[in-house]
Amino acid sequence: MNEYKKLLLSNKAWASERLELDKSYFDNLSKDQNPLFLWIGCADSRVPAEEITHADPGDIFVHRNVANMVVHTDINLLSVLQYAVEVLEVKHIIVCGHYNCGGVKAAMTNQDFGLINKWLRNIKEVYEKNFEALQNIEDEQLRFNKLVEMNVAEQIQNLAKTTIVQKAWATRKLPHLHGWVFDIHHGEIKEVININAGEWTSPVFHYDF
């Protein structure tokens, strides 16, 4: 059987199971979305937001890219962020990285990867910023894990620097920001950083509304 046909058959089975539990499930699902969370995660196929949090469709608004980055020139990410914050009015934004992230691992090398170098540079900036502290970690795997965590923390800072988030903080005291790392070896999520709405300040990245 072709692999893609297996996915279609699995979809039919999933839809049937949902209807057996609740005949109005898809009627209710199609009405509107009102997620509490925006999830900015890695595109890695092993880290599906709903699966690892045991969430239902409609609970989480999701954006994924290589190494769960918040880049100030990424119009795709910024469009998702603006819609989630200003239209859906999410209460929480989660940046979730994961150990053994291929993007972070690639950024730690001096190898030329072609086009993706442009994207990896954003991770390399985090690596360079924390290079001395990371080099003090002798174990290579622990050093890798630490950069994964540092990268997540940096992306939370990048969110706090946006006018989208700061305007929402000024007007409705939301959303809260959370940096997580999924431990792919054990299936559990580690909290790295939490910033409550309006808690973060900067004399440089500050806007008056």
From TrEMBL:
Q: Which cofactors, by name? A: Zn(2+)
Q: Which residues form the signal peptide?
A: none
What UniProt keywords are attached to this protein's entry?
A: Lyase, Metal-binding, Zinc
Record bears the keyword Transcription:
no
- Give its E.C. classification number: 4.2.1.1
Family annotation (InterPro entries): Carbonic_anhydrase, Carbonic_anhydrase_CS, Carbonic_anhydrase_sf
Give the reaction(s) catalysed: hydrogencarbonate + H(+) = CO2 + H2O
Gene3D superfamilies with a match to the protein in the record: Carbonic anhydrase
Enzyme class, UniProt record, top EC level: lyase
The protein's job, in short, is: Reversible hydration of carbon dioxide.
Q: Which family does it belong to?
A: Belongs to the beta-class carbonic anhydrase family.
According to UniProt, the name of this protein is Carbonic anhydrase
Q: Which organism is it from?
A: Aquirufa avitistagni
